[in-house]
Amino acid sequence: MARDNPGLSRSRRIDASQADEPAGKARSLAPLRLIFSEALRYPDKVAYALLALMVTAAATLAIPAALQLVIDRGFADGGDPGSIARWFRYLFLIVCVLALGTALRFYFVSWLGERVVANLRLKVQQNLLRQEPAFYEANSPKEISSRLTSDTAIIEQVVGTTLSVALRNVLIAVGGTIYLFVLAPRLTAMLIIAIPVIIVPITLFARRLRSVSRASQDRVADVGSLITETLSAMAIVQAFTQERREQDRFAQAVERIFDTARRRILIRSMMTGVVITLAFGAIVLLMWRGAVAVTEGTITGGTIGSFVLTGVFVAGAFGALTEVYGDLLRGAGAADRLAELLRAKPQIAPPASPQPLPVPARGSLSFRNVHFSYPTRPGETVIEDLTLEIEPGETVALVGPSGAGKSTLFMLAQRFYDPDEGTIRLDGIALPSADPAEIRQRMAFVPQAGTLFSGNARDNLRYGRWDASDEEIWEAARLANAADFLEALPQGLDTNLGEDGTRLSGGQQQRLAIARAILRDAPILLLDEATSALDAESERLVQDALARVMRGRTTLVIAHRLATVREADRIVVMDQGRIVQQGTHSELLARGGLYAKLARLQLDPAGPDAG
Ligand SMILES: Nc1ncnc2c1ncn2[C@@H]1O[C@H](COP(=O)(O)OP(=O)(O)OP(=O)(O)O)[C@@H](O)[C@H]1O
Fold first, then answer.
1. Could you give the count of Cα atoms lying within 13 Å of 459 in the half-sphere of its Cβ?
2. Are 256 and 276 contacting, i.e. CB atoms less than 8 angstroms apart?
3. DSSP 445-496
4. DSSP structure string for 10-26
């Protein structure tokens, strides 16, 4: 039965090689281009930030130079207080420049970081809104939302901190090394040999420390999930008297945290010892060589003081750069994952020159020889050679066992998917030739569970038509039998319905969804009748509202109740993706077969196969 299918090539999974590792690293820094191009949209801010960076790097290097002058000139003048004060004034001036430059750098660089992240979030969300449902089947919303939150946070850090740290340290490292050569070429040559001797062991320790720190965090996370699990099932734990076992499990997890933490602090202590020995050892060595040179009269005391301080700055800069590279790679990984979301091209998009739908709308819908399987399950035919013509104003009830393909027809009608074969037309226009937005404008969809958004009742009602006046909203609410409960809400239409409209009952949510569809006033109504059991009164109110909204519109209703089916002009019975019977209630009853069987079971819930 399954036709040969291009299969996975249709799947919309974005290349998420690192998807399981939200904070994973990229292999190269190339993806950072995305961040740069976004930042370069603000050339003035980039220029200010770079200027501030250069000024602060220069000011940092000027401190040792000033120190040299303080020692050599200030003290050399025989300790004349006026002369000493002058050189200290210069030193203070440099400090002021450094402070101002650092403040400005922080402002502009952080501004850029926040702006880049804001722009990327906006762009990604815009692109996400264009993707069809197949995209969200292949890419979990959880994973996407993590990209929009944790990955953007990483980028914010990269732009706001890492890049400026990197740039500043490159400037200090290069500028400082040149300055060192100018000060004392022979000592500098010694220093250059000493730097790797210091840096290499530190880097090795740091790497080890990072992996143990990560393990440490993982162990803490384990305890977190363990405690949530136990707390949320406390009644079960106690009912099965498993307190002892839970205590042991928890104790083991806590001890694992302690063990990794102990490894971490051991490495950290060793690293501190080694760093101090090497770094200060090198300084002592240099000072000794310097002191010898001073006594020989080849360099001044100021030079040696300045040299040591610059050396510390340069070594610090190299150290920071080794750290920064890892962070930049992490940023590149984050940028890469966001770029994937930006690059994703919707498969269902308006054609270059969309064919306009006829005006006024008629409301006819036609399916011809439609074959379809979902992209995520290419081998499984869901709709098979289905032909169905729905006339303007007609009410067609779709009935059939669960999984027959009824909801799929709704998805196809709204062009959330394209059929593999066959054509679907709205008012005579094949769906792919029209703009999908225009197609959906002509349809009002009432889902089984009235999807509500956090916000007030008014906004939930006019979700499909934002210019609706309060009079129109109340009119729709009355038609949908929703006015009574809406009036009873504490602040009427301004009442916040809370997330998912949890403050409304199932029946009320359905009536609200019906009112929304009435306001939308579209020529075609797609109605997925709720299977959830309502009490008799709610059921009557919903039924009554539906009868009114169907009037004068083409209606396709997935029917679960005999009452709805009886009112339909035509009943289409589906099974395994095919139409197996068509006719009115009495015709089909007389004919026997699947419909008669379903009707005997009262059609409800979704059929004999329903769980
Ligand atoms: N997004 C999807 N991806 C893959 N398969 C799907 C998807 N949605 C539905 N299916 C499968 O397609 C078949 C038809 O599903 P559909 O929801 O159209 O049936 P239905 O007749 O509306 O059933 P019900 O009354 O239970 O909602 C089922 O086998 C279902 O498992």
1. 11
2. no
3. EE-SS----SSBHHHHHGGG-TT--HHHHHHHHHHTT-HHHHHHSTTGGG-B
4. G------TTTT-TTPPP
Q: Whose CA is nearest to atom 26 of ligand 1?
A: 402
Question: Is the beta carbon of 468 within 6 A of some atom in ligand 1?
Answer: no
Atom of ligand 1 nearest to the CA of 405: 18
Residue environment code for 178-215, b if the CB has 16+ CB neighbours within 10 A, otherwise e? ebbeebbeebbeebeebbeebbebbeebbebbeebbeb
Residue located nearest, by CA, to atom 18 of ligand 1: 405
Q: pLDDT (tens digit, 9 = 90+) per residue, 56-102?
A: 999 988 888 888 887 887 666 666 777 778 778 888 899 999 999 99
**What 3-state class would DSSP assign to 572?**
strand
Which tokens in the block code for residue 519?
Answer: 């306001």
According to DSSP H, which parts of 489-593 are helical? 506-520, 536-550, 562-567, 585-591
Q: Using one digit for the tens of pLDDT, what is the confidence trace for 190-229?
A: 878 877 887 788 888 888 888 888 888 888 888 888 888 8
Ligand 1 near 175 CB (within 6 A): no
ipTM attached to this prediction: 0.95
Instruction: Quote the longest CA-to-CA distance of the chain.
Output: 122
User: Which residues have CB under 8 Å from 239's CB, separation 6+?
Assistant: none
Is the omega angle on the peptide bond into residue 354 within 30 degrees of 0, that is, cis? no
Rounded distance, CA 545 to CA 342, Å? Answer: 43
**Quick one: how far is CA 491 from the chain centroid?**
34
pTM (whole model) above 0.80: no
